[in-house]
Amino acid sequence: MKNILFVCSRNKWRSLTAETIFKNNPNYEVKSAGTENSARIRINANHIIWADTIFVMEKKHHERLLEKFPKDMNNKKIVILEIQDIYKYMDAELIEELKNSLTEYL
């Protein structure tokens, strides 16, 4: 089983939606977290260490992870999805965009 981590800014809409739609997949253990201090679940080193693959919604999230966790990010598979912060939790368009973006990986 692969450990998958989804990351956005506040872990309220994009990464939480991704976690929700993939959490029942028997091939993956899925978590989500945010990079901001105001995040619902704030990312920490344990999340990074746990994850086999990290999907970030935007390039800035990747940069923040490299900045905050430089050692833990070594040799981690990171995928930047380029999904903008324009959706609400479980928005139908967001779900479609996530599924399309993740098809080649999951």
TrEMBL record:
- What does UniProt give as the signal peptide span? none
InterPro entries attached to this UniProt entry: Ptyr_pPase, Ptyr_pPase_sf, UCP029416_PTP
Source taxon at top rank: Bacteria
Every copy of the Phosphotyrosine protein phosphatase I domain together lies at 2-104
Q: What is this protein called?
A: Protein-tyrosine phosphatase
Lineage start: Bacteria, Pseudomonadati, Bacteroidota, Flavobacteriia, Flavobacteriales
